[in-house]
């Protein structure tokens, strides 16, 4: 599953992590990529470490990759989280930014996961709206080694008609290509911005966009089988 959680703020404008946890349980999700996650960030999310809270509530392993760090000790953070029912063997967080701040920094969280079949690589990111930074992030992934089973998921901030989507789909499989649905805004969706891409080590059994009020984006889910 991939979901931009908008720091847990639902369509009712209330921050509620429990309903995200209930959805993950209901859909029986094994790995989850989350964008716009707060870690002790501000009053808007009650200074909660949201990734840790969800992982504890769901009894899942997790890692967090900040894109923004602020505060005196840089302990107020905002970025991406990855939750997994499988062991997480390693993780790395890569920051994309301009030397002169013209756009919000973005991060790309990479994790290696030990599934029952074999180890897989997972990338989770909230891609920049800024065209130069977005292109830099997409090109990094396009040029990455995809010789091992890899899942890339997140809010790409780009439609299927974009150059970014074309590049990603040249080397990777869009899990929802045969069953595409809009993902934003959640109330009356009219754009497809959130994706799960995989290498050809996977067979896509099915995919769907879930109707939900937990955020301003709709979650995308995919059932995958390792060849």
Topology:
Blueprint: E1 2-4, H1 17-27, E2 31-39, H2 50-58, E3 61-70, E4 76-84, E5 88-96, E6 106-114, E7 119-126, H3 131-142, E8 150-155, H4 163-171, E9 173-174, E10 194-198, E11 202-209, E12 220-226
Parallel strand pairs: 1-2, 7-8
Antiparallel strand pairs: 2-4, 3-4, 5-6, 6-7, 8-10, 9-10, 11-12
Can you describe this structure?
- The chain has a single domain, classed as Endonuclease/exonuclease/phosphatase (Deoxyribonuclease I, Chain A), CATH 3.60.10.10.
- Helices cover about 20% and strands about 35% of the residues.
- It has four helices and twelve strands; from the N terminus they run βαβαβββββαβαββββ.
- Strands 5-6-7-8-10-9 form a six-stranded mixed beta sheet. A four-stranded mixed beta sheet has the order 1-2-4-3, with helices on one face. A two-stranded antiparallel ribbon has the order 11-12.
- The mean pLDDT is about 95.
- It holds the Pfam family Exo_endo_phos.
Task: Give a short account of the largest sheet.
Answer: 6 strands, mixed
Shape: globular
Which percent band covers the strand fraction? 35-45%
Helix and strand content put the structural class at alpha+beta
Report how far apart the termini are: 20 Å
Query: What is the total domain count?
Result: 1
Counted by DSSP, the helix tally is 4
In CATH, the architecture is 4-Layer Sandwich
Question: CATH superfamily, called what?
Answer: Endonuclease/exonuclease/phosphatase
H/E series? EHEHEEEEEHEHEEEE
Which CATH class applies here?
Alpha Beta
* Major sheet: arrangement of strands: 5-6-7-8-10-9
Radius of gyration: 16 Å
Overall residue-averaged pLDDT value: 97
* Percent helix range: 10-25%
């Amino acid at each position: 599953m991939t979901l931009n959680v908008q720091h847990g703020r639902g369509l009712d404008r209330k921050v509620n992590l429990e309903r995200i946890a209930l959805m993950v349980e209901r859909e029986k999700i094994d790995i989850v990529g989350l964008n716009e996650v707060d870690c002790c960030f501000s009053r808007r999310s009650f200074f909660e470490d949201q990734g840790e809270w969800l992982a504890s509530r769901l009894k899942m392993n997790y890692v967090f990759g900040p894109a923004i760090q602020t505060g005196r000790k840089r302990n107020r953070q905002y970025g991406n989280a990855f939750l997994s029912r499988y062991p997480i063997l390693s993780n790395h967080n890569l920051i994309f930014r301009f030397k002169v701040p013209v756009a919000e920094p973005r991060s790309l969280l990479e994790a290696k996961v030990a599934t029952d079949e074999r180890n897989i690589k997972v990338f989770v990111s909230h891609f920049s709206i800024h065209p130069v930074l977005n292109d830099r992030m997409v090109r990094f992934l396009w040029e990455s080694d995809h010789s091992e089973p890899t899942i890339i998921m997140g809010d790409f901030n780009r439609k299927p008609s974009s150059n970014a989507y074309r590049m990603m789909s040249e080397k990777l499989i869009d899990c929802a290509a045969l069953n595409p649905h809009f993902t934003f805004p959640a109330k009356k969706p009219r754009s497809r911005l959130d994706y799960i891409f995989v290498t050809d080590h996977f067979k896509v059994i099915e995919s769907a966009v879930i109707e939900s009020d937990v955020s301003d984006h709709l979650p995308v889910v995919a059932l995958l089988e390792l060849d």
